[in-house]
Write a structure and sequence with these properties.
Layout (H helix, E strand, L loop, with lengths): L2 E6 L3 H12 L4 E5 L12 E2 L1 H10 L2 H7 L1 E2 L2 E6 L2 E6 L17 E2 L2 H14 L4 E3 L3 E6 L4 E5 L5 E8 L6 H6 L3 E5 L5 E8 L6 E5 L9 E5 L6 E6 L10 H11 L7 E10 L2 E5 L3 E2 L2 E3 L5 E2 L7 H20 L9 H22 L23 E2 L17 E2 L2 E2 H5 L4 E6 L10 E6 L8 E5 L5 E5 L5 H8 L2
Parallel strand pairs: 1-2, 1-11, 2-8, 5-14, 11-20, 22-28, 25-26
Antiparallel strand pairs: 3-7, 4-7, 5-6, 9-10, 10-11, 12-18, 13-16, 13-17, 14-15, 15-16, 18-21, 19-20, 23-24, 25-27, 27-28
Helix pairs in contact: 1-4, 1-7, 7-8
């Protein structure tokens, strides 16, 4: 074997998985067909749940340093400000949810932060390695490349985007629908004559043929331009083409656009892979699900795929867990991805506001085979739920959870003798959780809950804790 885990694709999901595996001591290699990281800002919203994931992965401070909050929308008509538009429902910071609003970070910057963290942990990305095909057997997977030697790994993770070469090589279908047949331009540009305090919105009028939005990209001098076109339009991605659109749909002169850093066009789709696993190969991120960008769900769901899969691969490869544990990746993530696809489509069509659902704090795994709720009358937090923050015994819970370990909360009850890899936190009361024993998974969800330790040793043995 050249490595234990080969990750194809150095996008947010591939880099996050590389980080999680590196901190668990799993030998992994990320390969990327490009000569460098993705250069654009298509995914720019980091939702509160992903902020919690980034807290655990050790990149939150860096993400905060290079980003910022979302500005208030400003509607323009005939060159005049016509009123504000609140893009997101407000949410308060609470003890159990310390991150309340989306944080704007251009995707290229997020990937720079993740890449730096991966290298800090000793992980590697091999650029210029385009996967072309694969074969697998009972022991591992062999991947061929356009240039360079084949690589062999015990497991392969396809994080190579919506046009995934790996998914196509496996013959796994991507089933879905076109959310909007109208092509959309997205570009990172430099613009003069606009303030950076607002997300500037230019609705269609009698003199224009489409919507235009210009958003200042936090932590940069760039703006993101998004423009929608009639079905069948060939979108011009050149500097002159973007200048023409901006001048036609706003009060700005064409020359106000001084530079194009990156540009692309797409037709919003919602599609889900028929399977997330085939043999020793797993699909993650856009290789498994494609979202409309509305509501900022795609990148976040992708990172959380990696967060779910990382600890399970680590438990099997380093913790001696039964390989059947890996079956729960598809079991848990595919229903979540399906639900989030429906949400992002609803936001795109204006049926759902950007609010509680888009923050992703309510996602969980109550129906998973990994979830065991043994209390006859569960409290407000049940097995399968996200494990909230808060204080217990003078300790902040997110500080206790941070790291690749399991955590046992003993609230108002005597804790049992834990497994060697389980951290124990005790306290007499915790308003969010209530009373009992709560075993928190490495990805921040309650795996097991009970009033007494009966059944807990059998559970920890099953999951490799």
């Amino acid at each position: 074997m050249d490595t234990d885990v080969l990750v194809v694709g150095a996008g947010p999901s591939g880099l996050a998985l590389g980080i999680d595996l590196a901190r668990r001591g799993v030998d992994a290699l990320v390969v990327e067909k490009g000569d460098g990281l993705f250069p654009g800002s298509r995914g720019k919203g980091i939702q509160p749940r992903t902020m919690e994931v980034f807290d655990d992965l050790g990149v939150l401070a860096a993400i905060r340093a290079v980003g910022g909050g979302y500005p208030v929308g400003m509607i323009w008509r005939d060159g005049e400000r016509a009123g504000e538009h609140r893009m997101f429902d407000a949410a308060e910071v609470t003890d159990d949810s310390p991150y309340n609003e989306p944080w704007m970070v251009p995707q290229w910057r997020t990937q720079e932060v993740l890449f730096a963290r991966l290298e800090e942990l000793g992980g590697k990305v091999a650029f210029g390695r385009e996967a072309t095909g694969l074969t697998q057997d009972a022991e591992g997977v062999t991947v061929g490349f356009a240039t360079g030697p084949d690589l062999r790994a015990r497991y392969l993770v396809a994080a190579d985007g919506g046009r995934s070469t790996v998914r196509r090589a496996l013959g796994i279908a991507l089933t879905g629908e076109t959310v909007d047949p109208n092509p959309t331009l997205v570009a990172d540009v430099r613009i003069t004559g606009l303030d950076r305090d607002n997300w500037h919105l230019f609705p269609p009028s009698a003199d224009t043929d489409g919507f235009l939005a210009i958003c200042p990209l936090a932590g940069t001098e760039d703006f993101q331009v998004m423009a929608r076109f009639p079905e069948g339009t060939a979108v011009d991605l050149s500097l002159d083409g973007i200048r023409e659109v901006v001048a036609a749909r706003s009060h700005l002169a064409a020359e106000a656009v001084t530079r194009v850093r990156w540009a692309s066009d797409f037709r919003p789709r919602a599609a889900l892979a028929d399977r997330f696993r085939q043999g020793r190969v797993f699909l993650a991120g856009d290789a498994a699900h494609i979202h409309s960008p509305a509501g900022g769900q795609g990148l976040n769901t992708s990172v959380q795929d990696a967060y779910n899969l990382g600890w399970k691969l680590g438990a099997v490869l380093r913790g001696g867990a039964d390989p059947a544990l890996l079956d729960t990746y598809e079991e848990e993530r595919r229903p979540v991805a399906a639900a989030v696809l429906g949400l992002s489509t609803s936001v795109h069509r204006g049926e759902t506001r950007r609010g509680d659902a888009t923050r992703q704090l309510g996602l969980g795994y109550r129906d998973s085979s990994l979830t065991e709720e043994t209390r006859p009358q569960p409290g407000p937090i049940r097995a399968g739920d996200r494990a909230p923050d808060g204080k217990l015994g003078g300790l902040r819970l997110f500080d206790a959870f941070r790291g690749p370990h399991w955590t046992l909360l003993a609230i108002g009850v005597e804790p049992p003798e834990p497994a060697t890899s389980v951290h124990v936190v005790t306290g007499e009361e915790q308003p969010t959780y209530g009373r009992g024993l709560f075993l928190i998974r490495p990805d921040g969800y309650v795996g097991w809950a009970g009033e007494t330790p009966v059944g807990l040793p059998q559970y920890t043995a099953r999951v490799g804790a």
